[in-house]
């Protein structure tokens, strides 16, 4: 499972980045992730452990979305790329820490998706899609099969 991106308003934040410089908004979201996300994940993880005490739970992190700017990252500057990747790092750290509290297995997606961000020649992540904003900045089918699925197989065999 992945968790936390919707709580942090990740997609809406990045869509808004196409309209204005949002480095300060991303930095505020990083502060929120570092101070508030743990409590939300803790409540979710406790429910999972209560309802499925014998389950093998695999928690997957979020990748860096960008390696550079391009048309798929329309309106996102290089400073916003850096800030967005810093946000992914913050989410990775908090999610890893919370998963460990419950002895869940955590797999970071940062290295797995390296060189497959939105603007990569072999992108595993969707860029901005005005026709389907909800799919913007989410993994493509290849991102699921080549990015996330191997991380799950590391645990399940």
Backbone CA Rg: 16 Å
Level of helix content? Answer: 40-55%
| CATH topology label | Rossmann fold
- Sequence of secondary-structure elements: HHEHEH
Largest sheet: 2 strands, parallel
Strand content: under 5%
CATH superfamily: SGNH hydrolase
List how many beta strands DSSP finds.
2
Describe this protein with a few key phrases.
157 residues; Rossmann fold; two-stranded parallel sheet
Walk me through this protein's architecture.
The chain has 157 residues and is mainly alpha-helical. It has one domain: Rossmann fold, CATH 3.40.50. It has four helices and two strands. Strand 1, helix 3 (78-101) and strand 2 (105-107) form a beta-alpha-beta unit. The chain is globular. The model has no long low-confidence stretch (mean pLDDT 90).
Topology (SSEs and partners):
Layout: H1 10-17, H2 23-51, E1 58-60, H3 78-101, E2 105-107, H4 141-156
Parallel strand pairs: 1-2
Helix pairs in contact: 2-3
Task: Summarize this entry quickly.
The chain is mostly helical. The chain has helices at residues 10-17, 23-51, 78-101, 141-156; strands spanning 58-60, 105-107.
